[in-house]
Write a structure and sequence with these properties.
This protein is mainly alpha-helical. It is about 50% helix and about 0% strand. It is built from 7 helices and no strands. It is elongated.
Length: about 170
Amino acid sequence: EAKPSPLFSKATETFLETKTNVKQSVIDSYRATFKRFLEVCEDKPLREYTGEDAGLFKSLMEQLPETYGKQKNDTRTVKEFVDYANKKKRPRVSGKSVKNHFTKLAGMWKYFLLRDLVDKNVFTGGWQFDTKAKTKRVRWNDEDLKRIAGQPWQFGTISHKTASMIVGIASY
């Protein structure tokens, strides 16, 4: 018989205790993902979550407005954010953002899978994310960069050399 698995809310704390050499901002981002997953799928033993739960979470996260997470004091739930985005016809978060949430959850599931506390990792294997860049970047050619960097610099507060370096860095 399988060992009982911990409640999601307890498992997250156990998992985060293993993250000893990471910045606080990384821990905070894990906590934000875990909070949103709990909102969507409720607290239950890890073994009881299914691919259906993962799919529901993915579906709702994909519907978040692109402004989601930009205001730290915003207390709206995932459902409230989605309702707002639908009502106001707002652009949605990137697939990369949703994939980042899945990656965090997959990492936690892997931790418990290796300890035989879940039967499978419901966040891996076949999930598709739209990770195309929203903004098409145009590559500058060497000639254009030389032309821009070679222009006389008219502002006395920084040197021409510094201005040229700024152009170089910006073009990277």
